[in-house]
Design a protein that fits this description.
Number of strands of chain A: 7
Shape of chain A: extended
Strand order of the largest sheet of chain B: 1-2
Largest sheet of chain B: 2 strands, antiparallel
Distance between the termini of chain A: 83 Å
Radius of gyration of chain A: 23 Å
Oligomer: heterodimer
Strand content of chain A: 15-25%
Distance between the termini of chain B: 21 Å
Largest interface: A-B, 24 and 30 residues
Strand order of the largest sheet of chain A: 1-2-3-4-5
Strand content of chain B: under 5%
Number of strands of chain B: 2
Number of domains of chain A: 2
Largest sheet of chain A: 5 strands, antiparallel
Radius of gyration of chain B: 18 Å
């Protein structure tokens, strides 16, 4: 009985001391971390719409086809909208590929940026490493975002050896673009679909 | 353990004689997971280096207070504490590094090498030798990860530290987990060969832990 008490007390003492150390560390590091994360997010958004002079503000939430919540933002320059931005993700081979997509006011893609992913190094991670892949999205309208395995300038060409990751990026971008089109462009949406036919 | 401790021996032991990855064959899992590039291997090595010094130091200080019957849970908690502290500090003050390593840091809790040094060395030795042992073992782990990283990244991606050196990718398999085991086996064999040829060692190493 005495032995049991000693063991318990010895463990409890260590747990309390460890808890205190972790608590104190958290207290002093979390504000720094919070500020840094907020700044990073703002910088990432700023990069997506360099011509916006006003702060980029959240405009709403949407839920993707895989059931995760994302935010979209409105970038304005002296009160006039210059870009629509949305966070999104696509389900890749071994992870969700998180991205930001920005569109200009005539609903063409301005830029696509991969925030983080956990795809296979050397294969799937080429969607981020090969700049040419993401550059394909620039200037495309909703109806053009179709992944092909053959050479194309009209649509999106997949990277060989990274087909699943390419598809994940394409689907994620498409989800985001669909959302932004639904929210911001009733007239332009029709025009874009008309081109496809 | 005797009172006169030879620090030179401890350091040599940690880096070469009982190199955590190549000789003791401990923590192979993370060694394969993070060494697809030199940079990741190096950063992971630095984090482990820090954690091992702190854990060995703490365990050594508390060695007379920790009840032997619950020593393993106690060590695990000490390790978890220092890993959490490392994680929190890196998340706040080394954002760029944390973005690359964030996923892996928490895994250090389960690294066999950290627990094994706490149990085999720090729990039986005074503060200073324990800290030196932690540093030496951490350095050995760091060097092993960097060697594996150089080998795998160069052959698998044709680059080093993210900078492209070759135009081609000579052996793509090297950056996949399979290639990690190939690389590790080759390195182990190569080091054993060096040991036998030039230092008259038996070449078997510790092994089997």
């Amino acid at each position: 009985m005495k032995e049991m008490l000693k063991i318990t007390l010895s463990l409890v003492a260590i747990f309390i001391a460890a808890g205190l150390i972790m608590g104190v560390t958290y207290k002093y590091t979390s504000p720094v971390r919070f500020i840094a994360e907020k700044k990073e997010k703002e910088e990432a958004l700023k990069e997506m719409a360099p011509d916006a002079t006003d702060p980029i503000l959240p405009a709403g939430n949407w839920t993707s086809s895989h059931g995760k919540p994302y935010e979209y933002y409105l970038a304005t320059s002296s009160g006039k909208p210059v870009a629509y931005i949305s966070s999104t993700a696509g389900k890749g081979y071994s992870s969700y590929i998180a991205m930001l997509v920005s569109m200009d006011t005539d609903l063409k893609i301005k830029d696509v940026k991969i925030l983080h992913h956990g795809e296979t190094p050397g294969l799937g991670d080429q969607v981020e490493d090969r700049k040419l892949f993401l550059d394909q999205f620039k200037g495309k309208a909703l109806s053009q975002i179709v992944l092909l395995k053959s050479e194309t300038t009209e649509n999106i060409q997949a990277i060989s050896g990274a087909t699943i990751s390419s598809r994940a990026v394409t689907n994620g971008v498409k989800d985001a673009v669909q959302t932004l089109v639904d929210k911001y462009g009733s007239g332009v949406k029709m025009a874009a679909q008309g081109v496809a036919k | 353990m005797s009172n006169d401790v030879n620090y030179g021996t401890i350091i040599k032991n940690g880096i070469f004689g009982e190199n955590p990855v190549f000789r003791l064959a401990l923590s192979l899992c993370p060694a394969v997971a993070v060494t697809s590039g030199v940079k990741n291997g190096f950063l992971m090595g630095v984090a482990v280096f820090f954690v091992m010094i702190m854990v060995n130091g703490t365990v050594s200080l508390l060695r007379n207070y920790i009840n032997p019957k619950v020593r393993i849970p106690s060590y695990m908690f000490i390790i978890a504490t220092w890993v959490t502290v490392t994680d929190l500090v890196m998340a706040a003050f080394a954002r760029d590094v944390y973005k690359q390593m964030g996923l892996y840091i928490m895994l250090i809790v389960a690294f066999a090498i950290v627990l094994s040094r706490a149990e085999m060395f720090a729990s039986k030795n005074k503060l200073l030798p324990s800290i030196v042992d932690g540093a030496a073992m951490g350095m050995g782990f760091l060097l092993a990860l960097v060697m594996l990283g150089v080998f795998r990244e160069f052959l698998g991606k044709g680059s080093l530290w993210g900078y492209q050196i070759l135009d081609s990718k000579p052996l793509l398999i090297m950056i996949l987990p399979t290639g990690g085991f190939f690389a590790m086996g080759l390195m182990m064999g190569w080091l054993n060969w060096i040991d036998r040829k030039f230092f008259g060692g038996t070449g078997g190493g510790g092994g089997g832990h």
